[in-house]
Amino acid sequence: MDSVPAGLHRDDRPADHRRPVVLIVLIGLAAIGAVVFALWPRSGTSATTITGDSETYRVELTTSPRSGPVTTSVRVTRHDRGPVLLDEVGIDAVMPAMGHAVPQVVATRRDDRFEAGGELFTMGGLWDVSLHVAGETVTVQIPVTEGQG
């Protein structure tokens, strides 16, 4: 009664022969996902720029808002557009909620900016950063994330 030739019948083998293929595909997708996750940019590691003003100066602080060593850049301009005749800018970071303070970091002149390296933030949370510019102080607040990013 069966008029279909033997070579055209459905595979009589059990469905288990497909399991290794599915497993290999799933492992490949998981590996691709892990690589994408590892290479995806993290917001915690990107630089943040915050601006503040004193009577004479406008200050732009650019840093990575995370705990651990960071490179910080400070751009100082005068409101009257006059030349900025400074060699360094002092940077103090304080976390009022926890009573933490970090020793002052000094940013030295690098072309049109001032740069400093070191640890500004010891833990995640809201930090007050005071920039000391020629006898004037500009204070800005930075929310900091935990960890090395």
> In which range does the helix fraction lie?
10-25%
Cα(first) to Cα(last) distance is 71 Å
Sheet having the most strands: 8 strands, antiparallel
- The quaternary structure here is single chain
Coarse structural class: mainly beta
Question: Roughly how many Å is the radius of gyration?
Answer: 29 Å
Residue stretches low in confidence (pLDDT < 50, at least 5 long) are none
Instruction: Tell me the overall shape.
Output: elongated
> What strand order characterises the main sheet?
1-2-3-6-5-4-7-8
Helix and strand element order? HEEEEEEEE
Please report which band the strand proportion falls in: under 5%, 5-15%, 15-25%, 25-35%, 35-45% or over 45%. over 45%
Q: How many individual helices?
A: 1
Overall average pLDDT: 82
Number of strands: 8
Descriptors:
1 helix; eight-stranded antiparallel beta sheet; mainly beta; elongated; 8 strands; about 150 residues; single chain
Structural commentary:
By secondary structure, the protein is mainly beta. The chain is built from one helix and eight strands. The chain has one helix spanning 19-39; strands at 48-53, 57-63, 68-78, 88-95, 100-110, 113-121, 125-133, 136-144. The protein has an eight-stranded antiparallel beta sheet with strand order 1-2-3-6-5-4-7-8, with no helix packed on it. Strand 1 and strand 2 form a beta hairpin. The longest helix has 21 residues, at 19-39. The termini are far apart. The model has no long low-confidence stretch (mean pLDDT 82).
